[in-house]
Amino acid sequence: MAEIKTKPTQVTPASFLDSVESPARREDGKVVCALLQTITGEEPRMWGPSIIGFGSYHYKYDSGHEGTMCRLGFSPRKAQLVLYVLTGADGEAERLARLGKHKIGKSCLYINKLADVDMAVLEEIARHALDDMNARYPSA
């Protein structure tokens, strides 16, 4: 089985955010980082080269594949902010409908800039995602 590449590193989230080229993306990243830290009560940690994550959980698929990943996370990518906060929980679609301009992937929320979204709704989405993660993967 292939080695999992997305795992905690020794790089500090602050130094990673400071290295983000776009000043607007860097500032949006700092806002999202503070928001997720407040919601989770966890210190941010780098997961792989570009994901800032909060907390962790262990998963195991029916296929036997298993690993550890952050409970919530984000990446201030060049094209968009990517937030790993979608779980498919009840009410998620309704919250996304109120968020503002965004795109979604399987578990990813893509935002061009925070000015495009309602920050209160983004906080609500992240809080519900954390609640869902905690229900599915209780801390040991």
From TrEMBL:
Residues 29-130 form the YdhG-like domain. This is DUF1801 domain-containing protein. The lineage of its organism: Bacteria, Pseudomonadati, Pseudomonadota, Alphaproteobacteria, Sphingomonadales.
